[in-house]
């Protein structure tokens, strides 16, 4: 009886105590906003702290904060999420605050930042603030700079964002698994002076890759190189939103690479300069023009250009396998093989079988039967037919007279009359061909074609 009474009073005390703790912690820890959609959200204009020009996260969003005694407070929740990779395919990933990648964090040079990290994963985690110059104990490397954040626990990080630039965050805990599951987010530290490095439109995204077997939902986490989904912010084209600009806008695109290989990103119709890396902004005198920038593993690059060429321009990784979705890999090469009737016969035995490089790459237009939850290898539809692209591909859409802050997809470009490549219906002269075996070709020092069966002639 006595023990029962003391048990009850003890339990009551514990209840009162935990209620107090909950009230206290509600004040101590800011709310953790959650986002479930993969649509690009409007830039989040700052409502407290120093002014800055916000970025636009492609198919993502910026994490709201609260000011507390002059400190910017954020709350990240590491948790399992469902991400739509593109219409028709969803993946079971891990991320932050409802999505993978997690929300973009935007602060201003000199800000004191406090970030609460709650772990709702089934295993321990940590967060590393890639590129930040901070105290060693805030660097987020499990075992080296801090103990692991156990499931259910909340840790707090605090440091000053010391220099303006382009950064990211990701776990330094069971990385092979956690990065392969999509745990990462973008971080932008804006310059103290909002006029410094100012642009009209500032887009950000991370490059990631997944290995999700056709017909399944969860990435294989032990894959080292042979990924089958190459993604921009965990979206594959045609799931990647276009980047929109008004003619004459100065545009910045910031990209970070958290895959296992490099990605040479290429722009059409424009030239750019690399203006910022994860080490900070580059002096104008040290920049040079490019149309492709290689983004190495673990690197970030920001490019800038004037969008002075109206149109719909491809913007993509130049590795052709990285603009393919899952079905593009491990296919036999049957170019030149006479397979009349064969494809149909094999197709009956092997669903999804198709012939590559035949009939002018009919892949994009072919409506093949796919396993559930599987993207066609290249799927985008354009104004002139299938775009025959997937993966790390999107578009820059430049239009005259857009309003400032208008990021809506303007639809397809209306080309001025006479400016579209067209079929030639006139006479087609015979194409000149070099045979390579004429004496003239030798004398010119032109390309010599060695013909192994021809040894008895010449020489
Ligand atoms: Cu690539």
UniProtKB/TrEMBL annotation:
<feature type="domain" description="Plastocyanin-like">
    <location>
        <begin position="85"/>
        <end position="193"/>
    </location>
</feature>
<keyword id="KW-0560">Oxidoreductase</keyword>
<dbReference type="Pfam" id="PF07731">
    <property type="entry name" value="Cu-oxidase_2"/>
</dbReference>
<dbReference type="InterPro" id="IPR006311">
    <property type="entry name" value="TAT_signal"/>
</dbReference>
<protein>
    <submittedName>
        <fullName>Copper oxidase</fullName>
    </submittedName>
</protein>
<dbReference type="InterPro" id="IPR011707">
    <property type="entry name" value="Cu-oxidase-like_N"/>
</dbReference>
<dbReference type="InterPro" id="IPR011706">
    <property type="entry name" value="Cu-oxidase_C"/>
</dbReference>
<dbReference type="InterPro" id="IPR002355">
    <property type="entry name" value="Cu_oxidase_Cu_BS"/>
</dbReference>
<dbReference type="InterPro" id="IPR045087">
    <property type="entry name" value="Cu-oxidase_fam"/>
</dbReference>
<dbReference type="GO" id="GO:0016491">
    <property type="term" value="F:oxidoreductase activity"/>
</dbReference>
<feature type="domain" description="Plastocyanin-like">
    <location>
        <begin position="223"/>
        <end position="331"/>
    </location>
</feature>
<dbReference type="InterPro" id="IPR008972">
    <property type="entry name" value="Cupredoxin"/>
</dbReference>
<feature type="compositionally biased region" description="Basic and acidic residues">
    <location>
        <begin position="441"/>
        <end position="459"/>
    </location>
</feature>
<keyword id="KW-0479">Metal-binding</keyword>
<feature type="signal peptide">
    <location>
        <begin position="1"/>
        <end position="26"/>
    </location>
</feature>
<feature type="region of interest" description="Disordered">
    <location>
        <begin position="430"/>
        <end position="459"/>
    </location>
</feature>
<dbReference type="GO" id="GO:0042597">
    <property type="term" value="C:periplasmic space"/>
</dbReference>
<dbReference type="GO" id="GO:0005507">
    <property type="term" value="F:copper ion binding"/>
</dbReference>
<keyword id="KW-0732">Signal</keyword>
<dbReference type="Pfam" id="PF07732">
    <property type="entry name" value="Cu-oxidase_3"/>
</dbReference>
